[in-house]
Amino acid sequence: MLIVEDEPLVALMLEDYVEEMGCRFAVTTGSTAPALETIENMEPDFVILDVLMKDEEPDFTIADELAARHIPFIFCSGHHRNILPDRHRSTPFISKPFGDDELVSALRQCRLRK
Q: Which domains does the chain have, with CATH numbers?
């Protein structure tokens, strides 16, 4: 699993949640370039993707790459779902702050779409 999250506390919380659910995560990164490199080199089974990184405009390069490679992912954001472009509107989405129940539900949704 790859976690792309620029807020350290949220990233740690996500790591804890996925570990408690029995998932293995290999990489947590907070920016676009290392995430794309990880996707290229590792092809993760699943990705949790923040919509907006610090000091960046909305950029869906990572989401586009994941979709092209058929790698399942969910968006995690403090912004409203309407920030998503039409091509990603059906992707599971959890709003910050969220609890483990919401994360589990989004993970299930994503699995069903696979």
A: 2-85 (3.40.50.2300)
Neighbours of 52 (CB within 10 A): 15
Q: Please list, in sequence order, all residues whose beta carbon lies within 8 angstroms of the beta carbon of residue 22, skipping any fewer than 6 positions away.
A: none
Residue 40, exposed/middle/buried by CB under 10 A (0-12, 13-18, 19+)?
exposed
| Per-residue H/E/C for 2-48 | EEECCCHHHHHHHHHHHHHCCCCCCEEECCHHHHHHHHHHHCCCCEE
pTM of this prediction? 0.88
pLDDT in tens, 22-41: 877 668 888 888 999 999 99
Count CB-CB contacts under 10 A for residue 95.
Answer: 13
